[in-house]
Amino acid sequence: MCALAGGVGAAKMLRGVLRVVEPSSVTAIVNTGDDVVLHGLHISPDLDTITYTLAGAVNPETGWGLVGETWEAMTALDRYDGLTWFRLGDRDLATHLYRTQRLRDGLSLTEVTAEVVSAWGLGLRLLPVTDDRLETRVTVEGEGEINFQEYFVGRQHNVTVSSVRFDGAEAATAGPEVLDALAAADVVIVCPSNPIVSIAPVLAVPGVRDAVVARRDAAVAVSPIVAGAALKGPADRLLRELGHDASVVGVARLYRDFVATLVIDEADADLADAVQDEGMRCVVAPTVMRSGEDAEALARVVLAATGRPA
Amino acid sequence: MCALAGGVGAAKMLRGVLRVVEPSSVTAIVNTGDDVVLHGLHISPDLDTITYTLAGAVNPETGWGLVGETWEAMTALDRYDGLTWFRLGDRDLATHLYRTQRLRDGLSLTEVTAEVVSAWGLGLRLLPVTDDRLETRVTVEGEGEINFQEYFVGRQHNVTVSSVRFDGAEAATAGPEVLDALAAADVVIVCPSNPIVSIAPVLAVPGVRDAVVARRDAAVAVSPIVAGAALKGPADRLLRELGHDASVVGVARLYRDFVATLVIDEADADLADAVQDEGMRCVVAPTVMRSGEDAEALARVVLAATGRPA
Question: Are the C-beta atoms of residues B122 and B55 closer than 8 Å to each other?
Fold first, then answer.
């Protein structure tokens, strides 16, 4: 099974998936458009959020970073008036130190990620969508184009966006196992991640979108929009500002070319017909994952929707 | 006043100097041959040891690193089997994060160092001897040539050394203020640092040795060897292994071309004549700095030796 994944929503979804299928059969293809180099360190927020969540080590209050984290380095960085807007906990820093060192040693991001996943004792395969540079850049009204993290964390996504692009995507090559994993998957899950800044950059890497389109019948997406709003983050606002419907119908329009089935929340049951009018099968189920049990139940719904037993 | 400086011994000496002269009149020209890039971070051990010591923030037990430090990042790095032999405390990490970011921003090491020194509220000028790459490399018996920190920290300098060289020195340019500072100094102090791996790399940067030679009459060194032993580190062993006398006389032979006066410890009073036989003036005084008062007294001796009132 393959999953296209962003950060927090994908991490929760995968936590449910791992409760119902053999972890070694699961490959998550993860957005790296959010990756950023700060202090010379290579930071991969989506990869880390998934790793920490699946390891049961994520900070449950934020959905990112490590539980019980300390902040000595960031506090000390204040003395220098250093870059502290992107908060890196002391233990989290170790992941970035390690990743950066291993990349300097000549490993690919795919290889380092496998080491990190193994170090946390996880059984699934996490694949960065590409080992090449991919940088989500956001044009903000009155400011111009900025890096995704400057938008997402620096401005707390509390600004108006007029466009999003994925710098480096055209020149990037899909990670060495990515296209094969999609071709071999019995099921392709599009996790409830931000369609604009988490799923779109994954699809922007040459070959990935075509590989998913080829598996459309096996593909099921979970809407990240519930009752017109994102559960977390700026997906609803971004959809609106970029001319899409901030609804499950808007999501359906973005996904219908490469996904056969859309799972929407019970709160959106009245829109099921409208989703089907977009040419997708529609499954209505509870999609809000407050617990591992919620995530497991949603994973069963997703698998049932594709006809795979779970 | 100018000082040629390595790490712990120089830091203690400078602490004394700052007690007796106006800090703004003091320039320390600091060894960067110990600098190392680990985890992608630019680490400048001697600059940091001096900064932390003068700020009263150094760990008094080790002589390096910060007092009251925590080690969450290093402990977390163990999970990945990462590089933990070079211990970086969480608060100390902030210095390396900041330095690395600012170098990436395009500042020189000289400029970043000035920012760090200012952030700690220090009044003196700390100058890296060069902004260019300078890497002390050590040939270890049975192992071959390794980086200085691999030798010093990794092997805890508990190996036999057959040669030392300063990679990059020939191509390096002295820092932008270094040669002028030496030319303008009323006094040049060669701090009680390791002659082989702290003072020699400073002198190896083109122009520096000549600039010190030109100020020989104003130059006074404090012997880092007391009673045939280094107070800290491998200076005695290195001197012996590289064919020098591990004594104040051996130090005199290494320094006599560019230093007029050698301050030796009372424990070596019987060697004063032998030092003078090497063509240097010799001053006998207590040189072991256990306290700020010790360091201040030594600073007064050094200044008196040059004829400068203190």
Answer: yes
